[in-house]
User: Fold these one by one.
Assistant:
Number 1:
Amino acid sequence: ALEEASYTLGASRWRSFRTIIWPLIRPGIANAFLLAVIESLADFANPILLGGDFDVLATSIYLAIIGRYDEVLAASLGIVLLSITLTTFIVQRYWIGKKSYVTVTGKPSRYSALPIPKGLDYGLVGFSLVWVVLTIVLYGSVFAGGFVRLWGINNSFTLLHYKRFLVDGFESYITTIKLAAISAPLTAAVGLLIAYLVSRYRFFAKRPFEFTSMLSFAIPGTVVGIGYVMSFNTAPLVFTGTAAILIICFIFRNMPVGIRSGMAALQQI
């Protein structure tokens, strides 16, 4: 491995990290940073449920549409949110650049993981355990909450909530399954088609076409929703309130996943 070769040639841990490991993990860090920023900016459920008096752009856009019926204000706030995410996207692309982040090497006959200091080892294990316990508690609370009458007040066992689901919520469940079943193959087909065009053909404006097809990844869902409301809420294309608009949104939102998966598969052929 490159790390072992670096240590064998006398490089320190810091120099090996700075010159070998860090350049190779930059794309992963940049993508994680971009995803975290976009998801944080576009997060609506957590701020609306837990935020209290702390308003964020996503909730302000929602309240402008639902509470005030002010599409112009919602669009203006959406532009502000979009400008932040696009700036982050451009910075991420600039930071990665056009460099190649792959290693061409043979498989070593024997490789053993390099040890890390004991203190760091124990610290990472402790942090991981805390995170695992927190995750189990959160999801366990959600699971247990479905079997008690009133969480935190009357914790007696009951199946009343699931009986209500079968009466009042089963139709929503079926609708969700239907929309997902329709959207998934269409998203895969569109993503694979675009991936095939980008990977196998050269044509005018290929780069802008690829960039535009991936742009939905960098646009918060709130902004996408505002765009669809303003585009398909008036004649001749009145799709608002129909299943078609939801399917189109799902395809547009998840298309980058299909494109990247298709490009990765086609590159192996």
Number 2:
Amino acid sequence: SHLQLCLYCSISVLSTKIHRMSVRTFVKGSTFWIRIENAKRANSVTEKMWDDMCRGLDQANNDPHTTFTAITGEGDFYSASNDFSPANWNTKKAASKDVETGPFRMGRRLIDHDKILLGLVNGPAWGIAATTLGLMDYVVCSDTAYFQTPFCILGVTPEGGSSISFPEIMGTSRANGLLLFNERLEAAEALQCGFVGKVLANNDLWSINTITGFSEGRFRAPHD
């Protein structure tokens, strides 16, 4: 019926509005925030979103009023790495040896970034979302976070500079457990081996004290 069609169209429009696939940037105090917003797909990153993250890092670098650049995700996941959905990825461009794709440009920007890089890991981080944390200056994670790099399953080499950064941070054997054998690194062990600097209870991660700590150029846990 006409009523059912209108209702279906309304629901479709609403669903489209709710499902954001974007990268949001905003400034709080002395911190430039970059937030991955693709919660329906566990914050996996599309080609356009990689471009947006690179643009955000450029903006943060050129902002004279900020000292810190913080990267985080929305919802329960930090990021499940790349979103290779055909509609969201130019496969011909990605396969070209002459084109530097979004993830590689992102890695280069993290390495060359002039500001202090902070990672606020609000949940699990997979693949390149986990490996690029090794390029940051300080990482805080939720107690629900874990880190996994399934490169051996996918048949690809470690990315994000992790073949260098991981052994330097956590030692050769533990790093190879992640990179070669798809072992999972839990939040508590990530703190113990130095991959993250602090683990917070999930409910405290977005508390006003945590955000204020980042924004004022200092970090403290709510109960420190």
Number 3:
Amino acid sequence: MLISVVIPLYNKKKSILRTVSCVLQQTYKDFEIILVDDGSTDGSLECLESITDPRLKRYRKKNTGVSDTRNKGMEWASGEVIAFLDGDDLWDPFYLERLHDMVASYPDCGLYMQDSMDIPAQEANQAKGTEEHKEIKKFNNWEHYFYYRNFKTSALAVNKAKAIELQGFDQSLTIGEDLDFWFRLILSYPVCFLDEIHVFILKYEEEYHSRFVPKDFSKHFSYKLVFKKDLYLNLKDNKDVHFIMNKIIFYALLGFDKDKNTEAVRILSKNLSFGRLNWKDKIKYILHQCTVHRTKCSIAKRVA
């Protein structure tokens, strides 16, 4: 079975050679690498000139963003299964072998996921994956799925035909486009999960001084899920839709500036089912609300 590895590339000069090399070192050999350069300006593609392996197929296009780049990679891929790998992440040598085992066990799934580990980039050479083989699982109940919590793109693979049928990554989203795609797959097909670590998400020093800001995510992703509910009308009888939307609404509410987005907050709050949140999310939400109210009171006192 041919597996296509899609790598979107944009200004990853320092890491792309190491990333491509980790694919070429896989124990499973029946693969191709579809590397799509999204208009890099730092000479990233030239870093790979020393690689002559015919399984590496290079494409260059103008800069259109990661969603279009991944979609182009899927379009140009020849394999029936597509594994995604970001240009600064790593796989251990057994990732594709275990992915093949997953597909062989459950060929009807739309999404295949393995566990992953975040590590400092300087420790990449010491990264070591899971040695023992664990049970390959198939899920249809997504409340159980969310227990495994893994949405790291470099640890996910898709059935190409099913992914194309769902029209791939939504290019209208500038943030959260990957989650949107995974959720649409989750709502449409079974998912296969393997609780083994063969994927390493490299964290660079500058990333530790910044953090994900959910309000940016909210502007795009929650708008699509909440304000344009017709997205999932064909799945309106699927109880998993409500669970997933509730999860996204929760994160959106944590990010919105209540004073600047009063209408958005009103609609999101109306659609949030607090009782369906797990206890950790309930605590996060309560603490967030307390912080918001304390801040408003503090401002009011200063103004007075």
Number 4:
Amino acid sequence: MKPEKIEPIKGYKEVELVQGELNRTRKIGSQMIPKLETMTIDILRRNNDMFAWNPSNFRGINSEVIVHRLNIDPQAKPVKQKKRAFGVERNKIIEEEVNKLLEAGYIAEIQYTSWLSNVVIVPKASHKWCMCTDFTDLNNACPKDPYPLPRIDLLVDSMVGCTLFSMMDTYQGYHQIFMAEEDREKACVVTENGVYCYNVMPFGLKNTGATYQRLVNVMFNDLIRDTMEVYVDDMLMKTRKERTPRTS
């Protein structure tokens, strides 16, 4: 007899965490029993201040806890990529994104850098464009961080016997970790309007996943493998009985 195949429950419903504010919502399963749904919504609303909605809602991880270091090979020669040319439409997208990053404090203008990387514009599933940075040359100069990431198959096995799951994805998680002061002048990007360095850990840098995993393993050490599983910035709370997960 073949084991019963587990199928994911389809469908979610949007819940207003602050009633009347349609831009502050979270998703819950649409097939919860009424009592569990009511309890879950109540907990989410009572703890709505735990959610971040924009960069001003968090200050970042204390640098004494962790920072991202490049650990560049001392034999590597710095590379300054030649600035790429973009059309008017894409330059406008780049300018808007740079202004957002400047306002949030994620980047800052810089002079006389030895390393320089280009902007890359990639399409998103929403048919919009996303600005990334081509750190290829910088990444090639950095050895791989051997810090282990969890095995996906073991994470799946750990969910056996659980009846309720709560998934969390951190808000701009990578940007909550600062770059080491001495490495900021190397993680630089050139645009039509100037040269900027990253104050926070950007997407696209080598070993950022290892840095983030190192952080969450420390933060959730007492919960991992018991009531929680974490793979980089994706987190899963698991409950073995059908009750509302506790929040802290």
